[in-house]
Amino acid sequence: MTEPTAIGALNSERIVVRPSPTVVTYLAATRWNDRLPALVQARLIEAFQNSDGVRAVSPPGGAQVSDYGLVTDLRAFEVNAYDRQAVAELNARIIADSNGRVVASRRFRTVVPIPDTEAATVTAGLNAAFEGLSRDVVAWTLGAI
């Protein structure tokens, strides 16, 4: 499973907060413990490992030989302060390793309402949005392969 591609605003440790649909800011004095794409990759791998639906899953370059690869594009991982929602969105493509053919593709989006934009609420909301998104990605992937 490759690390997701992401636009510059998401390709960092900073937590994105949108005060309006066209403005990007960051949550003050709060950061993820790694770049967001690396965290998403690690947590998706963990979700697949916990599913018991695959024999093995690893990032590219791992020791395992795979039948399929999952390529993802991180489209949103942010809090929309203007409507108090945590949003996680990504596009996923299942690629057959034998011939590079796209087996299936789908866009996933999870929205979780949040009561305020305090740091603890924002991170809890984003974690909840990602949990829903990762469950959907795993279920879809296992059904497609």
UniProtKB/TrEMBL annotation:
Domain of life: Bacteria
ABC-type transport auxiliary lipoprotein component domain ranges (all copies): 4-137
Protein name: Putative ABC transporter protein
Species this chain originates from: Lutibaculum baratangense AMV1
